[in-house]
User: Fold these one by one.
Assistant:
Number 1:
Amino acid sequence: MPNIRQEIHRQLKYITRLLVEKSIAIHQKWPIFDPNKRQIIWERFKNIAFSLKNEPYEIVYNKIVEMEDYNFLLLDGAVIQMMYEFDHRNNIIGHILSFYPHYDLTRYQDMPEDYEKLFYGTRLFVDIREEKVVTFPLRFDFSQTHNEIIHPKVHLTLGNYKDCRIPVSKPLSPNRFISFILRNFYFQKFKETNIEKDLKDDLVFEETITEKERYLLHFHYL
């Protein structure tokens, strides 16, 4: 039976191939394991988002894309980053799972047919805009840093609000995170490709949420 680290690495490699085959990702970096930091990251990992965390979103996004510091660049210019950390027994002790939509593009979900018509190979759609759309990044964090209610072990951050930490019941696997992103932000593609069946998740993590945090509005999954 593969250990947790091996299974997460397997899922990341599988997702990399899957998103390319389904024409959802137009550029990708393969996941690699750094034995010194006990982390699964991506090729030529630079962690630009962390170093520029106090900069405006547009600057952060552009630098990430310019330096190709991501797992995937999606068909509409959105970026996905997935980093996992493990102890010496290969138990998961942290993750950073981020979604950075293009700051100036209409989401695929709003105009899927137009995106399909304007996408050829690696061409991006810089001419489709919609005033009603407000793009923002989101991130699922898991760490051993814990301050009950204030800083849940696993939490969701919306936008770049430093104190936005919505409790999440337990860590997320790569399959579960990608399924969440595709279902909620690329639903037409999610439905048309029938990708849900390919993202079945058998990984089971222990819950990290506390009783007090359960009383807050939070995210929970089985």
Number 2:
Amino acid sequence: MLQFFAEYKQFSLIIHVFSVIVGMGGALVSDVLFNVYVKDKRINPTENKTLQVLSKVIWISLGVIVLSGLLIFLSDPTGYAKSEKFLLKVIIVAVLIFNGFLFLKITHKALKKIDFIDTNSHHKYVRIRKASFAFGAVSMVSWLSAFVLGSIQSLPVSLSQAVVLYVLVIIIGIIGSQIAEYFIVRKNSL
């Protein structure tokens, strides 16, 4: 059975890399568009539909990434189970899935219900906007990390060091996203 997966490993790799490119591109475009769309304090039906289409593309890409990653793993389970680079990619994909799930459940659904003009919903809007920027930061850091990992031969550090570095970059990204959110809101309110 391993021979079968080893024979088709190159095909699985091509599908995997293509899915990462499509997913990363969709996520980055979605993050940028989302932040542009909420600047006017409303998401109109066309903007919402665009974000929904991009969301579907990202989720399909993540599904194909998981499936093709499993096929790649099955081509050499012993080798990949020992590969720190592969294990880090698994962690990053898990973070992407969890982050996307939280974004859908917390931010995306809430934004449909918020009346941005109503001053009583202003405080809820601020929390949702801050959360959306944070989710976007986690998404960007994770997709770019997966891309970089795909571009290098092996990890130059141990798995634990790489995870700590990844978490630190996520924290820096979230802090940066909150600073950006503050200046964008301040600029738009002047």
Number 3:
Amino acid sequence: MQSSTDARRRFIRHPAEIPIEISASEVSDSHVNNTHNISAGGLSFASADPHPLHQIVTLAIRITQPWFEEKAEVVWCKKLDKGYEIGIEFLNQDAVYRARMVEQVCHIEQYRKDMKKKSGKELTSQEAALEWISKYAADFPKA
């Protein structure tokens, strides 16, 4: 069920663990997964079930406001010891930029939580964003 490695290696991949919902147009329910990585073309995620190649799915990330929701195509499916790793490519390339922004928001929110846990310092989302950007944005992968 795996396609050629060409589809999997065209873009640099960046590790990311973002909770996402995946639903297929022909299936009414959705499944929550975590991304494995994000690249300039799409992302990969773990799934208990395989997805057929070229299936169109809707990806939703509901931890930001507004919610991120985009259509994508399954471009590869790899069997793992437990479940599958699925690679999807966004149908709208503007979605890639928006997904990377969501990834940054997730990092900032995690930074805010870490600061509270480590030092007891309560930051607003804006304060956390400003601190995170000044400390880490330059090292955040560009593509």
Number 4:
Amino acid sequence: MHLKVRPVSLSALVVAALVVAVGSSFAQSGDPLHGTWKLDIAKSTFSPGPAPKATNLKYEPAGDRLRVIVDVENEKGKAHWEYTAGFDGKEQAVTGNPEVDLVSLKRIGPATTEASFKKSGKPTTTNTRVVSPDGKTLTITIKGTNAQGQAVHNVQVYDKQ
């Protein structure tokens, strides 16, 4: 049995090397949402208001799920709430937030996710989160209804820390 070996072109080798490099880079960089984010109040809008004094978000991997930690300071004081959920649309418990008790997540694209919140089984708000191409800015558009029954349309802009 004779094997015939065909020569491989240099361009084919370059393409193969680029595919491996890009794949490795993507695998190492992970989800662009991961990390700590600080609210830029001046670039954000809140309807209805008032705006919080400060908000910090932390997104971290938890196996194949996402752990979200929220620290807010507003006119009522400081609040801490969190949840861990997968991007499978299944509802998970939210702890520490009196306005919501369930969340479900969906991935819309590589840098876009959606979180849908409920309170006592009733939908409240949907948060669409988009990380900028450079990975330095997170914009969260929040639409729905708050606990007081008011329409909510907030655009929150965060800087990566």
